[in-house]
Request: fold
Amino acid sequence: MAKTPPFDAELGCPVSTGEILIPGQVWLDQDTLRWKLAGQSKQKVPGPAMLTEFASLYARSNHAILAFARTWGVLRMGGEPPKWLFPCCNLRPEGAEPLDAWRFYSSRAAAILRIAAALKEGKLGDLADWGVLLLRSPVEDDEDSRRAKLYGLAKVFAATGERPPMPLGAFPYFDIHARLLAQEVNMWLRFWRPSFYRLAPFYPAADICLEWSVTEQRFKTHMDHGGFLFPAIALQLMLAVAGAKSLYTCSGCGQPYIRTRRLPKPGCANYCDNCAARGEPSRQATRAYLKRRAEAKRLAAHGLSIAQIAAKLEAKPESVRRWLKGGH
Reply:
């Protein structure tokens, strides 16, 4: 008789994720993304590139948002402004979503990733990124609202039934910022649930579920987000921030991304998959070389020796000699 494995035999194993429902029809109508489930709707498992691409949409074209929605699904915003700002409100078979709202959530995700990457290095992050998190919705995206919300984060957290963890003087600044970022990510996971805006008795959530596998004849766990895109993004945000060692800012486009390849050496340039595919590393290396060679010639014209130039540019003397002779 086969030995029965202990009930915790799979603790610590990866938990599979659910699938996103992608509408059969998705198209642009000026500054609005429209969709219908009718047609060739399909389901797709979230991939590692989904979050990185979503976080870049705020700076990209309308057609880039359309391409993303056709690949990964829609936010399914519902109601009238400002209620349409809430994802997962629309349980109907069709909908219309302002692209400004897409860019709002995209810029917020990008700010979270950049701040997490900064915290990983012991920094507090850019003030502009924290400013993005001060806004509750796109309709408040103006300077007057920013000034009026010096305590905007506290108000956002209060709306979810949470408060900043302690008075500002109780923790070092680093801990304060890290805790605030954690609460921001928690808001992504929770704020569109019924307890937040009380619009309906049920909305899907990114939760862990148990299912029986007929093919494998065993119980399995998986993350279920009801086929919705937004909770899948929220879940990936949580995992990305928790595992921030793989978060980097691309040296090419300047956007945050999750690095799945070998980690770069400290101080070295690193590139997202899109920039790497476009040959950006080679172009930037050429620009850096030409800049260093020009600087070497400038220093030589001012009478510095090869050894002095090498020390200033942190280069080998033989490299400096080649640069001054016009070689590589």
Notes: The chain has two domains: 16-271, 280-325. Confidence is low (pLDDT under 50) at residues 1-14, 146-171, 194-204.
